[in-house]
Specification:
One of its GO terms (molecular function) is oxidoreductase activity. It comes from Sousa chinensis (Indo-pacific humpbacked dolphin). The structure is a single chain. This protein has 227 residues and is α/β, with parallel strands linked by helices. Helix content is 37%, strand content 26%. It has seven helices and nine strands. The strands form three sheets. The chain has a four-stranded antiparallel beta sheet. It has a three-stranded parallel beta sheet with strand order 7-8-9, with helices on one face. A two-stranded antiparallel ribbon has the order 5-6. Strand 8 (196-200), helix 7 and strand 9 (221-224) form a beta-alpha-beta unit. Helix 4 runs parallel beside helix 6 (178-191) and helix 6 (178-191) packs parallel to helix 7 (207-216). The protein is globular and about 55 Å long.
């Protein structure tokens, strides 16, 4: 199904030379329009030096069937004890955005070059952080939920279509402040599955949360301190 199979396989051999620990598989990727394709993808960690320490950052790259004329789709692949640091190169779902991807052009653009830029950018701004053990259970639920809504199979997504038919307003409330609450709010907002989105912050203050959300200029999102 790959249009340029020989070119793709040749490049992946080169990737394996530089990063032999990557693991390859064929899996179904669900696009934003709910269309699906079986795509080659690989996972592994890349070494990132940050403030004198080396971190192994887990990533997953999906290779489109038009490769090498289209860039890979890149994601972080955090474990349950890792949180995503949303920044200029990473969104709340862990998708990675880089100048190398934006300016992708065969034959000068290659996956090894992409990964090298990824490492360089992550050395400037680390994309993940370690969660306290008390937050790990919440992170497991959050990662599972984000995976569902980014793959278009969320129960909430199907309910939204039903509500659309009945002309009702679909309101979603995220309970809990802090970085986990913000990450979940960003994920739901990015999917566009709610007419009204409320972050119910039960912490002592909301100033930091408000400032963080203001950066993203999210529509139809409000912060509440009480039920």
């Amino acid at each position: 199904q790959y249009k340029f199979r020989d070119l793709t396989m040749e490049e992946l051999k080169n990737v394996n030379t530089f990063f032999p620990h990557f693991r390859y598989s064929m899996d179904t990727y669900v696009f934003k329009d709910s269309s699906q394709k079986n795509l080659l993808n690989f996972t592994g960690t890349i070494p990132v030096m940050y403030q004198g320490n080396t971190y192994n950052i887990p990533i997953r790259l999906w290779i489109l069937d038009s490769h090498p004329f289209a860039p890979p789709i890149c994601f972080l692949k955090p474990t349950a004890n890792m949180g995503i640091l949303v920044g200029k190169h990473v969104d709340a779902q862990g998708r990675i955005y880089l100048p190398y991807l934006q300016n992708w052009s065969h034959p000068k653009s290659v996956i090894v070059g992409l990964i090298k830029e990824m490492i360089a950018k992550f050395q400037e701004e680390l994309p993940l952080y370690s969660l306290p053990s008390s937050d790990e259970a919440q992170q497991v639920d959050l990662l599972a939920y984000i995976a569902k809504i980014t793959e278009g199979v969320s129960d909430i997504n199907s309910k939204n279509w039903a509500n659309h038919e009945n002309k009702t307003v679909n309101k979603i409330t995220v309970v809990g402040g802090g970085e986990l609450g913000i990450a979940c709010t960003l994920a739901i907002s990015a999917k566009g599955i709610a007419d009204r989105l409320v972050l119910l912050d039960l912490s002592e203050g909301t100033k930091g949360v408000i400032m963080d959300l203001d950066i993203f200029n999210l529509p139809n999102v409000e912060i509440s301190k009480g039920l």
